[in-house]
Structure formats: C-alpha cells, structure tokens
Design goal:
Pathway: Pigment biosynthesis; anthocyanin biosynthesis. It catalyses: a 3',5'-unsubstituted flavanone + 2 reduced [NADPH--hemoprotein reductase] + 2 O2 = a 3',5'-dihydroxyflavanone + 2 oxidized [NADPH--hemoprotein reductase] + 2 H2O + 2 H(+). By secondary structure, the protein is an alpha+beta fold. The protein contains 17 helices and eleven strands. The protein is 49% helix and 8% strand. The strands form four sheets. Strands 1-2-7-4 form a four-stranded mixed sheet. The protein has a three-stranded antiparallel sheet with strand order 3-11-8.
Length: 508
C-alpha cells in the first residue's frame, strides 16, 4: 500500500511540474519573443512521447510534413526541437553548433557509458577534446588509418576464407555476424594488438548480440529521461536492461585490459592504441584520464566501430540483391579496373566511382544513425524566426533528410547513379553537405567518420568483387527496419555466395 501511495505522489508531483512548466513559466515571457516552432499537442504529462511509436524516425518524418522542417515537441517536462531538412540541420549544426554541443542527461549515458565518462556522451570540454584528439591521432584520423591498413587487409582475408568455406559447403553467409566478427578483430588488433575472437563461434555471436542490444536500447525514448520524477519506476524496463548489459560489457572490457597489461612486455617499443591512452592518463593539458574514462572510450570504439559500418554494408548488399542490375554493374566496373586475378586493395577505391556511389546511396537511404544522438541548447536561441528555449533537446532526423523529395528525386528508390553526375556528384558524406550527413555534422560529428567511410567502401567493395551473391532458394529479401541508435535490418541478411576470383586471390 505504501508503494501505491508514493507512486501517486510521484505522479501528482510530475503532473504539477508539467503544468507549471507549460503554462506558468511560459506566461512570464513576452509572447512576441517566445513563439516556439509548431508541433503536435501531445498528451497531458507525457506530451508527444506516445506519438513516436516503435519507429520514431518515421513518425517524426510524417509530423514534419504537417508542421514543417523545424518542429517543437513537448516531451514530458522537456522540450525537443526536431530538424528534418538540410536547411534546418545546417541552422542547428553549423550556425548554432556551439550552442548545441552538449548532450542532455539520459539513462544510456549514465547506465551504459559509465556516467558519461566516454567520448560520445561527455560534455563538450577539456576531457572530451583530449579523448577525441588521442583517438584521431592514434586510430581514427587519416594518418592513423593508413598505419593500420594492413590489419584491415589481413582480417578481411580471414573473412573471405571463412565465406569461401561456407560456399563450398553450400551454406548461407549470415552477413551481420560475419561482419561483426571481422570488424571487432580489426579494432582489437589496433587497440589491443590481438584479435578479440580467434574463431567465429558462440563468444563472437554473444558479442554481436550485446552490441545490437546496446545500440537498440540506447536509441529508445526512455520515459524516465523526459519525466525525471518517475525515472525510478523504470516503466519500460529499459534501465534494468541497461544495467545488466553494462555489467556484461564491463566484465569483457576489464578482462581485455587485464590481459593487455599482462602482455605489455611483448609490445616494448611498439605500443598499440591502449598503450598510448594509458600513457596519457597524466598529460600536458592537465586533464586526468581515469581507468573508467578509458573503459568508456573502448566501449565507444568497439560498439559504434562495428555496428554502424556493419549495418550500412548489410543494407547495401540487400539492396543489390533486390536490384541485380546494380550488382552486375558493380561487378563490371571492378572486373575492368581490378580484374579477377587478385583481391581489391584500398588504393583501388578512388578508381571505382560506381562502388562509391553505391555507398553514398546506402548512407542516404539507410543511414546507420537515423536520428542523430541528442544535443541540448546551452542558451535560448532563435531559428527560422522561432524561439528555442534553453535546455531544449535537439534531434536531427537524418533518415528524413535522406528521403526528402524536395532534395532527392524518387527518394524511395535505390539509385546509385544519382551520385555520378550533376550537383549530387560533388556531395560528400563527411558533414559539410547537409543533404547527406549520415555521421552528423559540426563539433559533435561522429569521431569515426573517416574510419566508417573507409570500412564501408573497402569491405563492401571486397565482398562484391570476390563473390556472386544470391538469396537462398525460396527466400525473399526482407527490407524492414528495426529502430535503434543504429538502423538495423529487422531480419538479418543471409545469402549464398559463389567465388568469382582466381583461387589464389583467396589465399592472400
């Protein structure tokens, strides 16, 4: 009975706070200076939360058609502004970038990312800048990527041989499992000087499941984030799942770091990424990195580094299986440029414009992050003549921008050719062209943008060049989406492959 009473008190307090925020505080401001953007009315207390459904990016895109490119939604006791066109995204992520450079507090940052001690959720400041600088210098930047190109080649070779064995047994390739296994090992070689998974099996499959669960739960709209007074109730059960998942990841990361420390003598004079980070715990900036910071950073790199690129490659292959003429044209380009006597190498990529167009089209239609990670306004500001209050959350609907008919002709069609000529030929996904921002833009653009583009182009190109692809007999391609921080296929792609290169190419 005591629990029921306290529950009623919490709901009553939250309701009172909601009405005070909505009516009293707003009434104190001059009406001429506080016209917020249009948006749906929503429900009492919870606001627009119930309107988002299971596919928030789709629901918000539909709302934008009614309310416009900049919408304001009351979400519990919080306000959220949504940008749904390139112009609106540019206003927030370029013109007002510094005002929207922080993340709002949320359960994912607290319960998964070690209380926002990582690079993804940390406040914009000295520690975030240090983590980003070290990551760029030693793993994610241009020079660093060149330095570990051989690692990518070797691990991709392992994947090709595993796929060849499946083809010889006439067994299908489960694409996301194969990709996650390979990418985790690529990242493990750079961070820890070793493969994370020696053989593909239950351990690597569990890691894949953990990554998908993290990216899914971190993308949920958690009621407790928007109505803090009832967060303790964990109505959706999200927080309980996050705590359990965090413990599993923490055990894995702790084991990795302990084994890495024990083998330090083997890397004398040849430090890996973790060695560099550990050596920079005390640094010239005066910012101290704790073991928790380092664990949180590793969590970022292993999860985002595998899942986002993996999902784009899987969507690309699915689209080519659905549109065989695209696969045929890609094969023709590669046979002309590379031939069939050797594997694709990264230096081939600039000579493969159609492959690059396929990747851009996948970034457009199937962005790995459909809604950018939330940001929050440090100060009140104005956009398109509308007032945006302080502490308003910002969500940029990257998925909606990629399907905007005012920007893209026939946006629902998968047409790589759109990037081969005209104004679209110069569009680049690195955050400067707001028509195509799969990695976001501005100060908080994804730190792994360069790496993501390299991995998608190189791995997808190699898979397409090395094999013919077809669906198993009697199986149709399922193109349904599953919403999360990363946009997964609802049904994993499983396909039959047939080698198309000289046998010696698979032994490299």
């Amino acid at each position: 009975m005591a629990i029921d009473t306290s529950l009623l008190i919490e709901f009553a307090a939250a309701t009172l706070l909601f009405f005070i925020t909505r009516f009293f505080i707003r009434s104190l401001l001059p009406k001429s200076s506080r016209k917020v953007p249009p948006g749906p009315k929503g429900w009492p207390l919870v606001g627009a939360l119930p309107l988002l459904g299971n596919m928030p990016h789709v629901a918000l895109a539909k709302m934008a058609k009614r309310y416009g490119p900049v919408m304001f939604l009351k979400m519990g006791t919080n306000g959220m502004v949504v940008a749904s066109t390139p112009g609106a995204a540019r206003a927030f992520l370029k013109t007002l970038d510094i005002n929207f450079s922080n993340r709002p507090p949320n359960a994912g940052a607290t319960l998964l990312a070690y209380h926002a001690q990582d690079m993804v959720f940390a406040d914009y400041g000295a520690r975030w800048k240090l983590l980003r600088k070290l990551s760029n210098l030693h793993m994610l930047g241009g020079k660093a990527l060149e330095d570990w190109s051989q690692v990518r080649a070797v691990e991709l070779g392992h994947m090709l041989r595993a796929m060849l064995e499946l083809s010889q047994r006439t067994e299908p390739v489960v694409v996301p499992e194969m990709l996650t296994f390979s990418m985790a090992n690529m990242i493990g070689q750079v961070i820890l000087s070793r493969r994370v998974f020696e053989t593909k099996g239950s351990e690597s499959n569990e890691f894949k499941d953990m990554v998908v669960e993290l990216m899914t739960t971190a993308g949920y709209f958690n009621i407790g984030d928007f109505i803090p007074s009832i967060a303790w109730l964990d109505i959706q059960g999200i927080q309980h799942g996050m705590k359990h998942l965090h413990r599993k990841f923490d055990r894995l990361l702790t084991k990795m770091m302990e084994e890495h420390t024990a083998s330090a003598h083997e890397r004398k004079g040849n430090p890996d990424f973790l060695d560099v980070i550990m050596a920079n715990q005390e640094n010239s900036t005066g910012e101290k990195l704790t073991i928790t910071n380092i664990k949180a950073l590793l969590l970022n790199l292993f999860t985002a580094g595998t899942d986002t690129s993996s999902s784009v490659i899987e969507w690309s292959l699915a689209e080519m299986l659905k549109n065989p003429s695209i696969l045929k044209r890609a094969h023709e380009e590669m046979d002309q440029v590379i031939g069939r006597s050797r594997r694709l190498v990264e230096s081939d990529l600039p000579k493969l414009p159609y492959l690059q167009a396929i990747c851009k089209e996948s970034f457009r239609k199937h962005p790995s992050t459909p809604l950018n990670l939330p940001r929050v306004s440090t100060q009140a500001c104005e956009v398109n003549g509308y007032y945006i209050p302080k502490n308003t959350r910002l969500s940029v609907n990257i998925w909606a921008i990629g399907r905007d008919p005012d920007v893209w002709e026939s946006p629902e069609e998968f047409r790589p050719e759109r990037f081969l000529s005209g104004r679209n030929a110069k569009i680049d996904p690195r955050g400067n062209d707001f028509e195509l921002i799969p990695f976001g833009a501005g100060r908080r653009i994804c730190a792994g943008t360069r790496m993501g583009i390299v991995l998608v182009e190189y791995i997808l190109g190699t898979l397409v060049h090395s094999f013919d692809w077809k669906m198993p007999d009697g199986v149709e391609i399922n193109m349904d989406e599953a919403f999360g921080l990363a946009l997964q296929k609802a049904v994993s792609l499983s396909a039959m492959v047939t080698p198309r290169l000289h046998q010696s190419a698979y032994a490299v």
